[in-house]
Amino acid sequence: MSRLLLLSSSRAGATGYLDHAQPLIADFLEANPAPVQRVLFIPFAGAGKTFDSYLEQVRPAFSAIGLEIESVHQAPDPKTAVREAQAIAVGGGNTFALIKRLYDADLLDPIRERVAAGVPYIGWSAGSNIAGPTLCTTNDMPIVEPPSFVTLGLVPFQLNPHFLSGKPAGHNGESREERIAEYLALNPEALVVALREGTALRREADTLALVGELDGATFAKDGQQTLTAGSRLDSLLTRGLTA
Questions:
Q1: pLDDT less than 70: residues of the chain
Q2: 128 catalytic, yes or no?
Q3: Is residue 208 within 8 Å of residue 202, measured between CB atoms?
Q4: Is the Cα torsion angle 6, 157, 94, 164 positive or negative in sign?
Q5: Are 151 and 134 in contact (CB under 8 A)?
Q6: Which is the catalytic residue, given 2, 10, 71, 125?
Q7: What is the pLDDT of residue 243?
Q8: Which one is catalytic: 10, 20, 73, 140?
Q9: Which of 9, 115, 172, 228 could, after both became Cys, cross-link 197 (CB 3.0–4.6 A)?
Q10: What is the maximal distance between C-alpha atoms in the chain?
Q11: Which of 194, 196, 199, 197 is closest to 236 using CA atoms?
């Protein structure tokens, strides 16, 4: 019953914060079997701003499409807030901070349970990264140490948001492809789905589609494959390793 909208980024090109995502979010929630009027926001990935300021940054984008937004950090009982949520949105920022705070608040299982029951889940950047089995393919620095790298496992493959191919001239660090190859060298049964900015994955139970105008890519031990923009990717839901 899972319904997921996993956005690579909060911005696409020079657009404003979540501007490109508003029609995607509106369409996704309008298609929900149960009406959605309020969204529970999880701001725990915010590392360079307060949770209150993060909520206020996000609020206009949801208000513009007729949705109220509340934050889990303001809830008297965060677990109850998750269990009563009509929809859940997890913002971007630092994936290590996000997952540590979710462990600290004991919210991973309640989120998994609600998504399994059909409550729509929206993530961007770090919020999308944690929809995979682990945070091992995040782009972020480990600024805090979570109890585990295990994340929500809402899809059976790893995610790499903000994917950029190649590297700038004069840059001698690893490219994104090289870093993913290192991960696969030590996790050879895994599958990694790379999402370019402005794109998203949309899951509706057993169906999966790449949304947006740009292609994506998958990486596995046997090589890289292109994911065509707008294509159905249902087979990915039966492939991958949750480790």
A1: 240-243
A2: no
A3: yes
A4: negative
A5: yes
A6: 125
A7: 34
A8: 140
A9: 9
A10: 52
A11: 194
pLDDT at 101: 98
Tell me what pLDDT residue 167 has: 87
Measured CA distances, 87 to 72, 166, 191, 223, 236 (Å)? 12, 36, 28, 36, 24
CATH of the domain spanning 3-156+198-212+229-238, picked from 3.30.1030.10, 3.40.50.300, 2.60.120.10, 3.40.50.880 = 3.40.50.880
Question: Which residue matches tokens 């991973």?
Answer: 108
- 10 in catalytic set: no
Cα separation values, 209 from 76, 91, 215, 234, Å = 37, 21, 12, 7
The total of other beta-carbon atoms located within 10 Å of residue 221's CB is 12
Q: Is 60 left (phi over 0), alpha (psi -120 to 50) or beta?
A: alpha
Q: Among 162, 157, 145, 234, which Cα is nearest to 193's? A: 157
Amino acid at 21: A
User: Of the residues 162, 165, 231, 235, which is catalytic?
Assistant: 162
Annotated catalytic residue 171 = no
